[in-house]
């Protein structure tokens, strides 16, 4: 088998297992057995568990980032539409990783620093899009976009750590955002919320 194809298959398998068992509950032995390959072959492609898991964490993030960018390019919409795409992208990333993996990362120096960089990236995305909404006149004038972006990102992250279901969290995010906007923005959120209740991918 082509090494790149094999590498891709290992990453896909490992990401699924990481989301179920976290970093502490998964070993290179487990991965080699699950892939029906020798550990020697596995170590040729990934020299350590830390290396493999860091690549998997990057892969989780890059796929969601790519999906968000594609949706934003396809959508010829206002900053409000882009806000929902961005917030839902971060939520989807955390839920694709799963509570067990997120808890392990939070407690492990080997992985926490790289994931903190990812959280910093999403925080900046929240700040940028909320600032854009404020410039467009949708947000209430007293809203501090930097502060709210940080609070929103942290609320989403902490809810995922606590195991809040995806659909519940998604609706809570809409309610949090609703309190920031002028009437035109609230109308958009309410329309989006009514539509989204019928079109949620969990």
TrEMBL record:
Keyword DNA-binding assigned: yes
DNA-binding region, residues: 27-46
Keywords: DNA-binding
Entry superkingdom: Bacteria
Example GO molecular function: DNA binding
InterPro entries the UniProt entry points to: Homeodomain-like_sf, HTH_TetR
Residue stretches making up the HTH tetR-type domain: 4-64
Presence of keyword Cell division: no
Protein name: TetR family transcriptional regulator
């Amino acid at each position: 088998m082509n090494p790149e194809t094999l590498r891709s298959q290992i990453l896909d398998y490992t990401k699924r297992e990481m989301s179920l068992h976290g970093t502490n509950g998964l070993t290179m032995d487990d991965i080699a057995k699950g892939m029906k390959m020798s550990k020697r072959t596995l170590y040729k492609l990934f020299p350590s568990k830390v290396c493999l898991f860091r690549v998997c964490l990057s892969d989780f993030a890059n796929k969601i980032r790519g999906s968000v960018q594609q949706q934003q390019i396809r959508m010829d919409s206002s900053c409000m539409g882009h806000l929902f795409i961005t917030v839902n992208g971060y939520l989807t990333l955390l839920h694709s990783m799963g509570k067990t993996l997120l808890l392990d990362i939070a407690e492990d120096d080997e992985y926490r620093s790289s994931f903190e960089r990812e959280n910093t990236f999403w925080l900046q995305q929240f700040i940028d899009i909320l600032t854009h909404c404020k410039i467009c006149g949708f947000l209430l004038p007293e809203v501090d976009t930097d502060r709210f972006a940080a609070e929103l990102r942290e609320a989403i992250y902490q809810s995922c750590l606590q195991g809040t279901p995806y659909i519940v969290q998604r609706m809570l995010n809409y309610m949090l955002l609703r309190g920031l906007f002028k009437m035109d923005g609230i109308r958009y959120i309410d329309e989006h919320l009514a539509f989204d209740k019928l079109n949620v991918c969990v």
